[in-house]
């Protein structure tokens, strides 16, 4: 099993990144691929977890060990698979998630894609008091208006669709951000905060 991979980040898509390690391109699924935009074509260290199934060997990547530990806790819950765990991590509100689990806030937990009431209750049962978070990095982002076509917003919406959000939810978010200019990473962070309210 791998702990991390270190190499050159050569590709970013809405669903995954590709890390070149000694001439081998590793396709790694991550919660928010555009969070790695500043590291494109640079040496990058990605913490990974490999999931082996009958029909696929899949790598999931994380920016740090804390994010990886949260992912491992989430997939230990019955009813939460790797894709759902990535969608939860993409909200980038680990402190809020842990608080919701510890306070048995089922309403908050069911706002994540593919998490119903039964799975939310299972999360509370399995994880209450078992996970902790570092500092809450909830930083407000500034959005500047611009009339031009917004490729970053389109990329963000595509990435959120890959996480399992429905078209009607994304349409509302996209309408809210039209006429603004920001990075795909920031759009995803802000959109996830909007959808979690």
Q: What does this protein structure show overall?
A:
This is Holliday junction branch migration complex subunit RuvA. Belongs to the RuvA family. Keywords: ATP-binding, Cytoplasm, DNA damage, DNA recombination, DNA repair, DNA-binding, Helicase, Hydrolase, Nucleotide-binding. One of its GO terms (molecular function) is four-way junction helicase activity. The chain is an alpha+beta fold and 197 residues long. The chain has 3 domains: 4-62, Nucleic acid-binding proteins (OB fold (Dihydrolipoamide Acetyltransferase, E2P), Beta Barrel); 66-127, 5' to 3' exonuclease, C-terminal subdomain (DNA polymerase, domain 1); 144-196, Helicase, Ruva Protein, domain 3 (Orthogonal Bundle), CATH 1.10.8. It is built from 8 helices and 7 strands; from the N terminus they run βββββαααααβααβα. Strands 1-2-3-5-4 form a 5-stranded mixed β-barrel. The chain has a two-stranded antiparallel ribbon with strand order 6-7. β1 (4-12) and β2 form a beta hairpin. The protein is globular, with a radius of gyration of 17 Å. The model is unreliable at 134-148 (pLDDT under 50).
CATH fold topology of the largest domain: DNA polymerase, domain 1
Uncertain stretches of 5 or more adjacent residues: 134-148
Label the structural class: alpha+beta
Number of domains: 3
For the secondary structure, the number of strands is: 7
CATH class of the largest domain: Mainly Alpha
Q: Features of this protein?
A:
DNA polymerase, domain 1, 3 domains, single chain, Helicase, Ruva Protein, domain 3, OB fold (Dihydrolipoamide Acetyltransferase, E2P), alpha+beta
């Amino acid at each position: 099993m791998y702990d991390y991979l270190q190499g050159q980040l050569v590709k970013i898509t809405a669903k995954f990144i590709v890390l070149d390690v000694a001439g081998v391109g590793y396709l790694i699924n991550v919660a928010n691929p555009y969070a790695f935009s500043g590291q494109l074509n640079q040496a990058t260290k990605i913490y990974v977890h490999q999931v082996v199934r009958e029909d696929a060997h899949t790598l999931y990547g994380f920016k740090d060990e804390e994010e990886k530990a949260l992912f491992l806790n989430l997939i230990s819950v019955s009813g939460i698979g790797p894709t759902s765990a990535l969608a939860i991590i993409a909200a980038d509100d680990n402190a809020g998630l842990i608080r919701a689990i510890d306070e048995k806030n089922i309403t908050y937990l069911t706002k994540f894609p593919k998490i119903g009431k039964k799975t939310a209750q299972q999360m509370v049962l399995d994880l209450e008091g078992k996970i902790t978070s570092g500092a809450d990095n909830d930083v407000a982002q500034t959005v500047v208006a611009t009339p031009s076509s917004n490729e970053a917003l389109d990329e963000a919406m595509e990435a959120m669709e890959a996480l399992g959000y429905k078209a009607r939810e994304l349409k509302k978010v996209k309408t809210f951000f039209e006429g603004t200019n920001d990075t795909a990473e920031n759009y995803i962070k802000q959109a996830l905060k909007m959808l979690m309210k």
